[in-house]
Specification:
Protein name: Putative NAD(P)H nitroreductase
Largest sheet: 4 strands, antiparallel
InterPro entries: NAD(P)H_nitroreductase, Nitroreductase, Nitroreductase-like, YdjA-like
EC number: 1.-.-.-
Keywords: Flavoprotein, FMN, NAD, NADP, Oxidoreductase
Shape: globular
Strand order of the largest sheet: 1-2-4-3
Number of strands: 4
Number of domains: 1
Bound molecules: flavin mononucleotide
Pfam family, one: Nitroreductase
Distance between the termini: 42 Å
CATH topology: NADH Oxidase
Radius of gyration: 18 Å
CATH class: Alpha Beta
Number of helices: 6
Structural class: alpha+beta
Helix content: 25-40%
CATH superfamily: NADH Oxidase
């Protein structure tokens, strides 16, 4: 697919088919996705992939079946996601570097979503609040000093939403051409 078309046609996918996602394919896509610009080449990221039965680690964060606190809607929603990828970066003590690192990690996520879309695979970048909480962090083995940039939900789309209109960049361009 042509790059322009790929960028415009990629959509964030919320609802997936039950079909499994190949771990090897995702590893291969990530290996390409990490070719981002990265000031100082800190490369502070890692990727925690959760699939199969391990999805219960996330689905059971709001109670297990049988618990009084069990949230069946949350459980079913999360078990309906074929694969999760937590994108995690080591937080640099220097604010400027932390921001650069976060920016580079964001580029990886966009690269991955385009590469996945090219393969017919959907994805959404989720930033739900509980990905910063201890229960989620413990369930995925996230270490002190690591920051979760996003929880990616990955799978084959069962529904592709309509595109939401974008403000043309031309409406937002200031050209300075006078000395
Ligand atoms: C940093 C970031 C965080 C996001 N977090 C969420 C989220 O928590 N829940 C959600 O439904 N979508 C989330 N999204 C996806 C956006 O809602 C989505 O990109 C937007 O609606 C435009 O749709 P499109 O990606 O299909 O063009 C997030 C996107 C970004 C870049």
């Amino acid at each position: 697919m042509e790059l322009t078309q790929l960028i415009k046609e990629r959509r964030s996918i919320q609802i997936f088919e039950e079909r499994e996602v190949s771990l090897d394919l995702v590893k291969e896509l990530l290996d390409t996705a990490v070719w981002v610009p990265n000031h100082r080449m800190t490369q502070p990221w890692r990727f925690i992939i959760v699939h199969g039965e391990a999805r219960k680690r996330i689905a059971e964060l709001k109670g297990k079946p049988g618990d009084a606190s069990f949230n069946v809607n949350y459980y079913n929603k999360m078990m309906g996601v074929p694969m999760f990828i937590a994108v995690v970066i080591q937080e640099n003590p220097v604010l400027g570097i932390r921001e650069e690192d976060y920016s580079s990690a964001s580029c990886i996520i966009q690269n991955l979503s385009l590469l996945a879309w090219e393969q017919g695979l959907g994805m959404i970048w989720k930033s739900y609040g509980h990905m910063h909480e201890a229960a989620y962090r413990n369930a995925l083995g996230i270490q002190p000093g690591e920051r979760v940039v996003g929880s990616l939900h990955v799978g084959y789309a069962s529904q592709v939403p309509n595109a939401q209109p974008r403000i043309p960049a031309t409406d937002r361009i200031t050209v300075i051409d006078q000395a």
